[in-house]
Write a sequence for this structure.
């Protein structure tokens, strides 16, 4: 299993051998091709291993956000919603879409074919929004330190992301998930919340959290086109070897109808859960702002600075971690 888990390293070494080979078909080229094929085989075997076995009833959990969000790449329309790899069989992506005082959708940077090719994450309403614990549990993993990169919501941006995805796929789960937190919810159920803002994860491994407790902020780290939250349940603490589990939420659609299940792709919803710490503060008149000012590294690796999407082509690829 350990060899399968690190199949991406094998692929990477194989690709490197092929790229540096300058003598045509020879020992180095054959070694590279062999390692590349072994890595691809390992990826296929691991994907088959991570495919869920049998039917598992949906696990009721709390919606880990507040406010109005849109569902993308979720399991309501297809399973696997992403891929079986990294326990993403039933994963869902969420982007934040608040409304103005007039009841209109707040401005969100639209998808552009060419320019601007990239946008700062602060331009998106989701960036900096509080992320809540989906249930009572214990933190088993809290990964931080990865930058919140510029958006990929343009044709050049999506091209760059395809290349990034290939490279990230040869690394570990953290390179795809970005900054993330894994919670042990008990009874063999683990929750993973990914693409968090750098520096925002609050708990440390071993800390106990309560449902509705703020544990991080939405970011744009890892394999992401724009700031959004990636949510998945698993049957183990390691996304590289665990299997995905289905879940269900209590939420309200845009017409205010109460629903139980998973929102359909491209539909807007608000959580129906109440009583958590964030909701209590909001009812008291101290709601968290839709956007949070703060520094973020740009793609060129420059210094921290203050401050992409509207259209479906970019949002549909909002994450395939």
């Amino acid at each position: 299993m350990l060899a399968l888990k690190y199949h991406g390293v094998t692929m990477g070494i194989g690709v490197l051998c092929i790229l540096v080979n300058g003598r045509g078909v020879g020992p180095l080229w054959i070694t590279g091709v062999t390692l590349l094929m072994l890595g691809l085989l390992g990826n296929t075997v691991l994907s088959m291993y991570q495919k869920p076995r049998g039917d598992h009833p949906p696990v009721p959990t709390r919606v880990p956000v507040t406010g109005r969000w849109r569902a993308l790449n979720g399991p309501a329309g297809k399973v696997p919603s992403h891929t079986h790899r990294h326990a993403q069989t039933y994963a869902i992506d969420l982007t934040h879409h608040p409304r103005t005082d007039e009841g209109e959708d707040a401005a969100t940077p639209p998808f552009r074919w060419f320019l601007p090719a990239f946008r700062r994450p602060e331009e998106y309403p989701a960036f900096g929004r509080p992320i809540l614990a989906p249930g009572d549990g214990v933190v088993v993993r809290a990964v931080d330190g990865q930058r919140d990169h510029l958006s990929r919501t343009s044709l050049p941006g999506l091209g760059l992301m395809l290349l990034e995805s290939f490279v990230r796929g040869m690394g570990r789960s953290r390179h795809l998930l970005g900054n993330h937190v894994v919670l042990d919810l008990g009874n063999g159920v683990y929750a993973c919340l990914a693409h968090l803002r750098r520096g925002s994860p609050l708990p440390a491994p071993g800390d106990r959290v309560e449902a509705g407790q703020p544990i991080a902020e939405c970011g744009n780290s890892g394999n992401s086109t724009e700031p959004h939250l990636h949510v998945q349940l698993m049957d183990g603490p390691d996304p590289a070897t665990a299997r995905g589990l289905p879940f269900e939420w209590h939420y309200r659609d845009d017409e205010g109808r109460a629903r139980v299940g998973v929102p359909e792709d491209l539909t807007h919803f608000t959580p129906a859960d109440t009583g958590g710490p964030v909701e209590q503060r909001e009812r008291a008149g101290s709601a968290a702002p839709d956007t949070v000012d703060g520094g973020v590294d740009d793609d060129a690796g420059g210094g921290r600075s203050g401050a992409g999407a509207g259209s479906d082509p970019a949002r549909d690829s909002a994450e395939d971690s």
